[in-house]
Specification:
454 residues; mainly alpha; Amino acid/polyamine transporter I; globular; transmembrane helix; AminoAcid_Transporter; L-amino acid transmembrane transporter activity; Amino acid transporter
Length: 454
C-alpha cells in the first residue's frame, strides 16, 4: 500500500468510522450512467446539429463521432477509476496529479457551480415541461424545479437502496419512451418532402465544429461513473463494463432517434424546428403527441436529476474528509449508507440557484452559462491527470490500461480543450458569475495550506 493510500484511509478513519460500501451492481451503474447522460438535450440539440450540417448523412456521422469520442474518454476514466477507486472520483485524481490545492478548488467548484448548477438546470427543464401538463401559477416552472430537487434529495437521504431502485425504474422508462419516439418517427410519421441536403454553409468547418459542440454536450455526464467507483461491486471489471455498455446504449439511442427525426421531419424540418421531438410527435399523433413528449421529458429530467444528486454528493463528502473547515461534510451515515450532510448542503445550494434562475427569468440559459466553462476546465485537468499519473506513479497496479496510450488520452484532451474554448466564446454573463463563485473558494485553499504548514 502506498503512503498516499494509507494517508487517505487514516483521514477517513479520523473523520468517521463509517465508509462507502460496495452495493451497486453492474446494472445499477449502467442505469446511473444512462440516466446522467440522457436528459433534455436529445429533445433540443438535434435541431441545432441539423442546422449546422449539410446532409442527413452528416447528421448521423456527427452523432456517431460523438459516441466514439465519449468512448475514448470513458476508456481514460476507466483506467483512473479502477486504479484509484475512491469515492471522490476526479477530486482524488487531481489531488494526486496536481496537488491538493487544485483538488480543493475543484471540489468547491463542483459543490457550488458544476453539480449544483446542473441539478438546477435540469430541474428548470423538468419544470418547463411539467408546467405544460399542469400549471401552478406565475412561477410554475420554478415551483416544479424546487419540488423536484427537494423530493429527490429527501429520497437519497433515505438510503442508496431507495435511490438506486428509483434510478433503475426511471432509466427503464426513459429508454422505453425514447424507443417509442423512435418507432413512431420511423413507422407512423408521414414522410416529409424529399430534401436530403441543406443549403451549403459559407464556413463549413465552423459549421461542423458548432454541430459537434452540441453533440458532445448531449453526451456529457458519463464521467460521473468515477464518483461511484468505491461503491461498485467488483469494480476492477464493472467500471469498464458499465461505461462501455452505458455509452453504447446511449449512442445507439441517439443515432436511432435522429434517424426518426430525419424520417419524420427531414433535414430542413429538423433545422427549422424549435422543439424537434414535439414537432415529430405532433405530426404523427396530433396534439396528444405533444402531451406524450412532455411526459417523457419530465421522466428523463427526473432520471438525470436523481443521478446527478447521487454522484454530486460524493465529491462534497471527499472534500469534508480532507479540509477541516468542511469536516462536517465528511460524515458518512452507516445505516442508510449515505453522505447525509453533503446531500443537504448540495440540495440547499441547488435550491438557491433555482432562486437565481427565477430572478433572471431565464433559468435554463442562466444555468448553462453558469456551469459550462467551469465544467470543461476541470474536465480537461482530470483528463490530463491520466498522463501525469502515468509518469508520477509508474509502479501502481492498473487493473485496466487505456489502449493506444498516449494517443487516445491526447485526442480526448484536445476535445475537452476545444469545448472549453467554445463554452467561453458562446456563454453570457452567467459564466462570469460562475467564475466569481469559484474564485470565492481560493481563500479556503489558502487557509488549508496555512494549516498544513503549521
Amino acid at each position: 500500500m502506498s503512503i498516499i493510500d494509507r494517508s487517505h484511509q487514516l483521514e477517513t478513519a479520523d473523520v468517521n468510522t463509517a465508509a462507502p460500501r460496495p452495493s451497486l451492481r453492474l446494472t445499477d451503474a449502467i442505469a446511473l450512467i444512462v440516466g446522467l447522460v440522457i436528459g433534455a438535450g436529445i429533445f433540443e440539440t438535434p435541431a441545432i446539429v441539423a442546422a449546422n450540417t449539410n446532409s442527413q448523412s452528416a447528421v448521423l456521422q456527427a452523432w456517431i463521432l460523438g459516441g466514439v469520442i465519449s468512448i475514448i474518454g470513458a476508456l481514460c476514466y476507466a483506467e483512473l477509476a479502477t486504479t484509484y477507486p475512491y469515492v471522490g472520483g476526479s477530486y482524488d485524481y487531481l489531488k494526486r496529479a496536481f496537488g491538493q490545492s487544485i483538488a480543493i478548488l475543484f471540489a468547491w467548484a463542483r459543490m457550488s457551480v458544476i453539480q449544483t448548477g446542473s441539478i438546477a438546470l435540469l430541474a428548470f427543464v423538468c419544470g418547463d415541461y411539467a408546467s405544460q401538463l399542469w400549471r401552478l401559477g406565475s412561477f410554475s416552472s420554478s415551483i416544479y424545479a424546487a419540488l423536484a430537487i427537494a423530493l429527490l434529495t429527501a429520497l437519497n437521504l433515505l438510503g442508496i437502496k431507495h435511490s438506486k431502485r428509483l434510478q433503475n425504474w426511471l432509466t427503464i422508462t426513459t429508454i422505453l419512451g425514447l424507443l417509442a419516439v423512435i418507432i413512431i418517427g420511423l413507422t407512423v410519421a408521414p414522410a416529409p418532402a424529399l430534401m436530403t441536403t441543406a443549403p451549403a454553409s459559407s464556413e463549413p468547418t465552423k459549421s461542423w465544429g458548432s454541430a459537434m459542440v452540441f453533440v458532445l454536450l448531449s453526451y456529457g455526464g458519463w464521467n460521473e461513473a468515477a464518483y461511484i467507483a468505491a461503491e461498485i461491486k467488483n469494480y476492477q471489471r464493472n467500471i469498464v463494463r458499465s461505461l462501455l455498455w452505458g455509452i453504447g446504449i446511449i449512442t445507439a439511442l441517439y443515432v436511432l432517434i435522429n434517424l426518426a427525426y430525419l424520417n419524420g421531419l427531414g433535414l430542413a424540418g429538423m433545422a427549422q424546428s424549435q422543439a424537434v421531438a414535439a414537432d415529430l410527435l405532433r405530426r404523427a399523433l396530433g396534439e396528444p403527441g405533444a402531451v406524450l413528449i412532455s411526459l417523457l421529458v419530465v421522466v428523463c429530467t427526473l432520471d438525470s436529476i436523481n443521478a446527478t444528486i447521487f454522484t454530486g454528493a460524493r465529491t462534497t463528502f471527499a472534500l469534508g474528509q480532507d479540509v477541516a473547515v468542511f469536516r462536517f461534510l465528511g460524515v458518512w451515515q452507516d445505516r442508510p449508507n449515505t453522505p447525509a450532510t453533503a446531500y443537504l448542503l448540495q440540495g440547499a445550494i441547488s435550491l438557491a440557484l433555482v432562486g437565481l434562475g427565477t430572478i433572471t427569468r431565464d433559468g435554463f440559459k442562466t444555468m448553462v452559462d453558469y456551469t459550462a466553462p467551469i465544467f470543461w476546465f476541470f474536465f480537461l485537468l482530470s483528463s490530463l491527470s491520466l498522463l501525469v499519473l502515468r509518469v508520477r506513479d509508474p509502479d501502481r497496479i492498473r487493473p485496466f490500461r487505456v489502449p493506444l496510450y498516449p494517443i487516445l488520452p491526447l485526442l480526448f484532451c484536445a476535445a475537452c480543450g476545444y469545448l472549453l474554448y467554445s463554452s467561453l466564446v458562446f456563454t453570457g454573463t452567467g459564466a462570469i458569475v460562475g467564475v466569481i463563485v469559484v474564485a470565492l473558494g481560493i481563500p479556503f485553499v489558502y487557509w488549508h495550506r496555512q494549516q498544513q504548514i503549521q
